[in-house]
Amino acid sequence: MENTAAIMPRIVTPVGPCSAAHADWASGKSAALPAKIRMTNVQKRFSVRGRPVEALGGITVDIADHEFFTIVGPSGCGKTTLLRILAGLEGMTDGSIEISRELASEASAVRPINAMVFQEQSIFPWMTVRDNVALGLKARGLSKRSRYAAVEPHICKVGLEAFADALPHQLSGGMKQRVAIARALANDPEILLMDEPFSALDEQTKLILEEELLRIWEETRKTVVYVTHSIDEAIMISDRIMVMSARPGRIKDVIDVGALFPRPRNMDAVKASPRYGELFNRIWHELREEVFASRAGIQG
Ligand SMILES: Nc1ncnc2c1ncn2[C@@H]1O[C@H](COP(=O)(O)OP(=O)(O)O)[C@@H](O)[C@H]1O
Ligand SMILES: [Mg+2]
What we know:
binds magnesium ion, six-stranded mixed beta sheet
């Protein structure tokens, strides 16, 4: 497999108002927040054994500062590729991405641009929970004492205070994902990228972690780009949902969930609302169309 692309995201100072209006959930009013991420015609082509594979067919969207932005789409439509491009792990073939950095201050100078939480466990088995969470701060040169002091509130936020000295093999799958989330939060990145973080977990653990993530996000209000295959999870947690087409991934729909379900949200109340069912069906029909389209493409 070769990679022909080299265009990387540009880090800029604030890039102006976001093209989408957002519900300011504190006031209940619609507000134009500044754009945190501006993607323009992002395209990605892989070359597999000399043959081009179009993964992304031109994505243009602004993501607002403090927005919880979720991507759903059929398997293989380029969701992970888009996150990897945002993380700077992969280049684009064409297009541009601007990520705005907070105005320069001593703190922002050392803040990482992004932190990524993956589906698979990405914590180190030989390190305690506390050391795993503090990993990014070690790389920034903080002393052990200040690292440990800084990570304590994040360990508590994900409910692992009793396990701070435990090793990963002593934890359940859900607890390991909590460690990964605490580590991402402790790094205090400009944007948080999450690729199906709960998809390997059992249903009940997933529901509990979703509820916790909703609570943590409503406290921290980081800019999050979140990939999930769960329509339910997307509706519960997002400000907006971007539905992608089958490969090459394009934008099929962008849904303003914030306008339908103001925050702070109560999961039970959202599920009981007739608007929840309507929205679920809308997204499900859009995805089903794409799954059939991609199957026809494979068979044809
Ligand atoms: N490193 C790579 N080399 C070649 N093809 C790739 C590579 N990464 C992803 N692809 C292809 O790009 C498409 C999109 O993949 P991916 O972003 O993983 O999809 P998703 O996360 O939506 O399931 C798929 O057809 C996949 O096979
Ligand atoms: Mg993926």
